[in-house]
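Q: How would the structure tokens look for this protein?
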Amino acid sequence: MRINFKKEYVIISGLLLVIVFFSDFLRIIIGLPLALFLPGYLLMAILFPRKDELGGLARIALSIGLSIIIVPLIGLVLNYLSWGVKLLPMMLSLIFLDILLIFLSWYRRTKLPGEQRFVLTYNIDFIKWPDKTKGTKVIHTALLITVFLLIFTSVFILSSPKTGKNFTEFYITGLNDVTAGYPKQLQAGENGTVKAVIINNEQQKTRYRMEVWVDGDIIQTILPIYLENQEKQEITVIFKAEKPEDLAKVEFLLFRDGQDMKPYRQLRLWVEILPDLVQGSQ
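A: Here is the predicted structure in token form.
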């Protein structure tokens, strides 16, 4: 059996990533091998375009290894961007990277005569297996074991129940979105303003209620707050203390639907309350 890995077939296979995006089954069957092979193969085609530089078997092994390195690096970059490590940004990043590598590898190949260009072929002849050298048998066996391990690991991960951690992020910032930018000193009767940030990671739509307390007295209740899973909401909260004191305790209590007695999340802010200069001058 002879397998030819022509550049045209690789390009068409890469474009299939777009087609299979909305099909879970096709995304697993087609997308996974492309993610574990195509980026590394295209990079190898750029680095080693001549057919006498590396053998076909070595290219397959290095293509898989490089792909396993490239894909996590893309995820690492996305983690520091606003897109995050999600399916659509990851898929688009892989497609754009593959397209870029395709053009670069095509450019490299056009600089070589046709007879010197590498075309990946792999011969599988089980009848002649006993005639192969010991080193060739070891390399072929190791490659087959690697492929089977990748398939087994992928099937195991995909078949495992996808149960993420359920939690809610709750924190306060100043109006400049800096966590240390909230007011630390206020005059008596002066309004203080902060942002309360809620991020739902409960894996389902959740209803919240938020209460704001100053020195044990409730001054504001914000409800209802409905957030879809992974949805974020910023709420501007205004508070004040009427009497001067060294440290006024401002509490932000977040209640989740069905837990009205005990706060689900609780934040405290200590603010120094200074005498009102206008009243003091009078």
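Residues 2-124 form one domain.

The first strand starts at residue 2 and ends at 5.

Upvote if useful.
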